[in-house]
Write a structure and sequence with these properties.
The complex is a heterodimer. Chain A is mainly β. Chain A has one domain: Immunoglobulin-like, CATH 2.60.40. Helix content of chain A is 0%, strand content 56%. Chain A is globular, with a radius of gyration of 13 Å. In chain A, 34% of the residues are buried. By secondary structure, chain B is an all-beta fold. Chain B has one domain: Immunoglobulin-like, CATH 2.60.40. Helix content of chain B is 0%, strand content 50%. Chain B contains no helices and 11 strands. In chain B, the strands form 2 sheets. In chain B, strands 2, 4, 5, 6, 9, 10 and 11 form a 7-stranded mixed sheet that branches. In chain B, a hairpin with a 2-residue loop joins strand 5 and strand 6. Chain B is globular and about 40 Å long. The chains are: A mainly beta, B mainly beta.
Chain lengths: 110, 113
């Protein structure tokens, strides 16, 4: 069964810095998703990565997918406080069951 | 923008009681899901539902759980005899196809006392 592991699970960083969250998955995943969750809120879809080499960018966030390495990354450029949230990656195996990682709690210090 | 709606937002129940959590998925979506999240931790898959039947279910989704789409718009999760460990945030989600992301509702916080 698909397992999704995120690294790190907690990240505290200064505004203006760059950082990367890593997401490894164990078996075939047809797609890879990134979600954001603010405390006490729902999950918001950020990116859908459909194929090897896919890269998506929205503002200061950029996600990529390497299916051969079974690795996705979420890169944060010049972090701002508004990006403080928990970020989840999720894999989509070839059956109808999206599996989430444990999440990375991102705390951006002013 | 269309959204998934869940009711109630908070449900308190006593151990052993039955609860029904309700969801209205986005109207043109075909695939429906329930997830739960305990104390802001991992988002755990419970069940997926398509074409009026369960597609997949997890080990958590035992005989105490059931899902139903009673009327073409609502999608419900029933827990027959709640346990303390069922306390969690329950999220309903839907999507229009298997290559699309899930759209989540705002969740129902279930507290079992």
């Amino acid at each position: 069964e698909l397992k999704v592991e995120q690294n790190p699970l907690f990240l505290s960083m200064q505004e203006g810095k760059n950082y990367t969250i890593y997401c490894n998955y164990s078996t075939t995943s047809d797609r890879l998703y990134w979600y954001r969750q603010d405390p006490g809120k729902s999950l918001e879809s950020l990116f859908v990565l459909l194929s090897n080499g896919a890269v998506k960018q929205e503002g200061r966030l950029m996600a990529s997918l390497d299916t051969k390495a079974r690795l996705s990354t979420l890169h944060i450029t010049a972090a701002v406080h508004d990006l403080s949230a928990t970020y989840f990656c999720a894999g989509d195996p070839p059956y109808d069951k999206i599996i989430f990682g444990k999440g990375t709690r991102l705390h951006i210090l002013p | 923008e269309p959204e998934v709606t869940q009711t109630p937002s908070h449900q308190v129940t006593q151990m052993g009681q039955e609860v029904i959590l309700r969801c209205v998925p986005i109207s043109n979506h075909l695939y429906f899901y329930w997830y739960r999240q305990i104390l802001g931790q991992k988002v755990e898959f419970l069940v997926s539902f398509y074409n009026n039947e369960i597609s997949e279910k997890s080990e958590i989704f035992d005989d105490q759980f059931s899902v139903e789409r009673p009327d073409g718009s609502n999608f419900t999760l029933k827990i027959r005899s709640t346990k303390l460990e069922d306390s969690a945030m329950y999220f309903c989600a839907s999507r229009d196809g298997l290559r699309s992301p899930l759209h989540f509702g705002n969740g129902t916080r279930l507290t079992v006392t």
